[in-house]
Amino acid sequence: MASAFESVIKSVVRELDHSGELIPVDSLRSSTSFQPYYLLGRRCSRSWFWKPRYKSINLSIRDILEPDAPEPAVKQSAPIHIYDSMDGELQASGELEAPARGRCAGGAAIFDTFSLSMKVRTLRVDPNIWDAMKQERHLRQPEHKVLQQLRNCGNDVFVVTEVLQTQKEVKVTQTRKQEGSGQFALLGTISFQGQGQGHRSRKKTVTIPSGSILAFQVAQLLIDSDWDVLLFPDKTHKKQRTFRLPKEGHQLTSGAGSQSPLSGRFKLESDGFVEDWSAVTGDFRGLQAEVRAQAQVLQGLSKELCERLLAGLVQVLREEPALRTLEDALERGLCCGSVARLDGPVDAVLECLVHTSGELEVHLAGPILYLVEALAVLSESQRELLVEMLETGGLSGQFKLVGSVLEQSTPWQERRDVSLLQELLGSSWDPEAPAWVLLEECGLGVQVDVPQVCWEPQAQGRTCALYACLALLFGLSQDCC
């Protein structure tokens, strides 16, 4: 069962954005970080199969330009009233009878309700504003320290150009109710019969404050001797970078170009990422090859180190801020070659990756950052389930199941029904089953009457990230045995 906030985002974006240009906000907590003119950072993806999140860098465009002056006003749309109501019911029943031996029968039903009524508006930067701003304002000198850090790490910078904003506070409730019943009769010298029934309900409520950002659009900044805004990127040519890369043969930093999982197979840029993505097969075989390359680096680690790594990751997964802190620390470490000590669960992971001198073990940190980036793509519910499976077992079955879904759904650009192998589902197929939750949270449509999901093209990124997480975590847990 997806979070109530996520359900709101999906409903609104589905209604207002048929082109797929709006980027949904991933949490209510971070929604204030995506105002017009705010700057966002995004690292180059270590995977072909999902995109890293945009992250606030706590700056706006005026913070990096001079002379200092407020940003121009944005255009506001008329209020848009959205109403969405869903009341669904799924039922299934079955019966088994053996002559002269007995009979058993059972049924189950799931009821989902969701209702949304809210007013939103769009705030948009006039595209013509940028030419005027470029004439009037220039890059601040010396360059802002945050930009220097992003440049050194090879990250790109984007500016928010449009947002979808709530106009009034809204309270949203999502309810799921399950009912089940069964009866049986055993015949013989002593006959025995019985019946039972039960129900369970779950309710999620979220209050979204007025002025919250639900989705946004960005344009990439280009920064060299001066600045520019790339409003319409040419997708047929090589991807442009915010900062001009060093000349060929010069490494950005001691860690940025090391141990790419695809090195030796594809042409790499000087920052260690793939320059020609056309050499990567964008299907399940390509995903397997990419994940396998990362897993090979982690193979052969000592049992003690695997145990410490997994214990640290379990602690980090229980706290979303810790996951983001670890991601940032590893990225900085790969840029400069060393990391500073941090308090809390993050330090338990970093201790496994840092020499006594403070230098980062780059060869090992690369695959761990790949895993952390994949974990960051998942929902909170999915990460909680991974923690549970790490502690109780079950990673292997889910790894095979998700792999089966990805293999059957290729090519991923088309919607289709995908059957799930019964032997991989375990003893249950219901909204509380781990397989159900993992797949539903990826954005796949699950069916209760038969073990089957409907593949949705937009679910590719999170499903591929889930596969990578299961593969690497299962590999580490096996090495602990």
UniProtKB/TrEMBL annotation:
Residue ranges of every copy of the Gasdermin PUB domain listed in the record: 283-453
TM region positions: none
Keywords on record: Cell membrane, Cytoplasm, Lipoprotein, Membrane, Necrosis, Palmitate, Transmembrane, Transmembrane beta strand
A Pfam match: Gasdermin
Membrane topology: Multi-pass membrane protein
Intracellular or extracellular location(s): Cell membrane; Cytoplasm
Main location: membrane
Keyword presence, Lipoprotein: yes
Listed GO MF terms: phosphatidylinositol-4,5-bisphosphate binding; phosphatidylinositol-4-phosphate binding; phosphatidylserine binding
GO cellular component: NLRP3 inflammasome complex; plasma membrane
InterPro entries attached to this UniProt entry: Gasdermin, Gasdermin_pore, Gasdermin_PUB
BP terms from Gene Ontology: defense response to bacterium; programmed cell death; pyroptotic inflammatory response
Occurrences of domain Gasdermin pore forming (ranges): 4-243
Lineage: superkingdom: Eukaryota
Family membership noted in the UniProt record: Belongs to the gasdermin family.
Name of the protein described by the UniProt record: Gasdermin-D isoform X1
Gene designation: GSDMD
